[in-house]
Structure formats: structure tokens, C-alpha cells
UniProtKB/TrEMBL annotation:
Pfam families, per database record: GFA
Residue ranges crossing the lipid bilayer per the database entry: none
Protein name, entry field: Aldehyde-activating protein
Species for this entry: Aliidiomarina shirensis
Keyword Zinc: yes
Length: 133
């Protein structure tokens, strides 16, 4: 069994995951665009992994969009996305919340019918190792 560790940006909430991931999806739905402020969410999924809050569980809150199954847990101090469990027992882990490196690569892009219009040909966009001068 593999152990993964993660935290929010401010470090108030820290967690451990024990287990493996069954999928890694880049979700382009409009809900994920809104709650990430980006083109897509990058989430790992597991039905078997166990989530343990090491510190700061009192900083974690969960928002469920009324009338949908869309949920997001986040730190009430810094707003960082954090793992959440849905009613079906599926654990959703924002990939960027992990401090431990994962070797799994994305399984698929999903909800691409909602893809942001500017999210295309990104391989042609210049890259910088830091903030451009």
C-alpha cells in the first residue's frame, strides 16, 4: 500500500492518503472551470484509499453545488482545493494538493464538450521556467 501526503497552500490542513488511485481525470466541465478558475480540474479518484487528516481538519469545509453532484472541499483560510468524499464513497483528490509525487499520468480529458475556447494548441504557447521578465 502506498502512502501519499498533501496539504493546502497555507499549511493549516495536512492529510495522508493510504492506497492507490484508480483514475486521474482532467475535467473540463463548467463547474470545474468555475471552482478552479482555470481550463480544467486535475483530480485523482479512489474508492479504496483511506484519507486521514493529520492536522487542520477544522479548516476544511465542503461546498456542494445545489441540484448537482458537484462538490469541492477547500481550506477556509487560503481557499486551496482539498480531498473530498462523495456520497458514493468516491474519494476525489485534487492533484495539486499532493506533496508526494505521483507516477500516474492523466487517464483522460472528460467533459470536453464544455472545454474553454482558449484551451487549444497549448503546446505552441511559449514556456518559461519562472515569471517572464
Amino acid at each position: 500500500m502506498t502512502n501519499y501526503f498533501g496539504s493546502c497552500l497555507c499549511g493549516n490542513a495536512k492529510f495522508e492518503l493510504q492506497g492507490e488511485f484508480e483514475g486521474f481525470y482532467l475535467c473540463h466541465c463548467q463547474h470545474c472551470q468555475k471552482d478552479t478558475g482555470s481550463a480544467h480540474a486535475a483530480n485523482l479518484f479512489s474508492r479504496e484509499a483511506k484519507l486521514t487528516w493529520l492536522v487542520g481538519s477544522d479548516y476544511v469545509t465542503t461546498f456542494t453545488l445545489p441540484g448537482t453532484r458537484h462538490m469541492k472541499s477547500f481550506c477556509t483560510c487560503c481557499g486551496s482545493a482539498l480531498p473530498t468524499s462523495n456520497a458514493g464513497g468516491l474519494l476525489v483528490i485534487p492533484a495539486g494538493s499532493l506533496d508526494t509525487k505521483v507516477s500516474i499520468t492523466p487517464t483522460a480529458h472528460i467533459f470536453t464538450s464544455s472545454k474553454a475556447v482558449w484551451d487549444k494548441d497549448l503546446g505552441d504557447v511559449p514556456e518559461f521556467k519562472g515569471l517572464p521578465e
